[in-house]
Design a protein that fits this description.
This protein has 216 residues and is an alpha/beta fold. Helix content is 44%, strand content 21%. The protein has a single domain (5-215), classed as Aldolase class I (TIM Barrel).
């Protein structure tokens, strides 16, 4: 298993604030995400600006698409995104349309796994050619006390066995990364843990140290 990548999720409501966070975080991360909150608040300008400022980073547009797959994928990829998120609850047609746009541009779709989905759904995504999924503990689930457990690890192993490349997210902090040491994780996504410019770089360092400890 190779060492996971580190992704910052910019979930600020203003682009100016997100850019301040990104400026401090960029040297310490591999991937920069225009978060759902930022995209809804500021529109495609968020992705365009991140693409211009960070030409060497992978840029993610976390649109959490539920419908209009090809239109939204086209907006995000034209703005400069490399990866684009679609909800697991979207219809197969929506996922397929977004995936077709991604393939035509040499980009990738990521399926956001929240709530209700099955391994049969995952098999259908893989059959379609989708390569990536994001295993997600939602903010609201975390706030109501949901912790990571054996059920998550079992599902992650099953998804990995299907061939999906996995990002893991949802209030992740460096101290929790070891829980996933037996998982072939492509990436860990952190938003709030990296959002404070005073502590973000040290937290990013702690993530990388944990990656080296468990996957190095
Ligand atoms: C929420 C998201 C967030 O971007 C993701 O969960 C990372 O942020 P945090 O580490 O603050 O949870 O997509 O739906
Ligand atoms: Mg996000």
């Amino acid at each position: 298993m190779s060492k996971p990548l580190l992704q910052i999720a910019l979930d600020q409501t203003s682009l100016a604030e997100a850019l301040e966070v990104a400026a401090v975080a960029a040297p310490h991360v591999d991937i920069i995400e225009a978060g759902t909150i930022l995209c809804l608040s500021e529109g495609k300008t968020a992705v365009e600006t991140l693409r211009q400022r960070y030409p060497k980073h992978i840029i993610v547009a976390d649109y959490k698409t539920a419908d209009a797959g090809s239109t939204l994928a086209d907006i995000a990829f034209t703005a400069g995104a490399d990866w684009f998120t679609v909800m697991c609850a979207a219809s197969l047609a929506t996922i397929e349309k977004a995936h077709e746009v991604a393939v035509a541009r040499g980009k990738e779709v990521q399926i956001e796994l929240f709530g209700n989905w099955t391994l049969d759904d995952a098999k259908a995504w893989v059959k379609m050619g989708v390569k990536q999924a994001i295993y997600h503990r939602s903010r609201d689930a975390q706030a109501s006390g949901q912790t990571w457990g054996e059920k998550d690890l079992q599902l992650l192993r099953a998804l990995s066995d299907l061939g999906l490349e996995l990002s893991i997210t949802g209030g992740i902090v460096p101290e929790e990364v070891g829980i996933f040491k037996d998982i072939n994780a492509k990436c860990f996504i952190a938003g709030r843990a990296l959002a404070n410019p005073q502590t973000g770089p040290a937290t990013a360092k702690a993530f990388h140290e944990a990656f080296a400890r468990y996957w190095g």
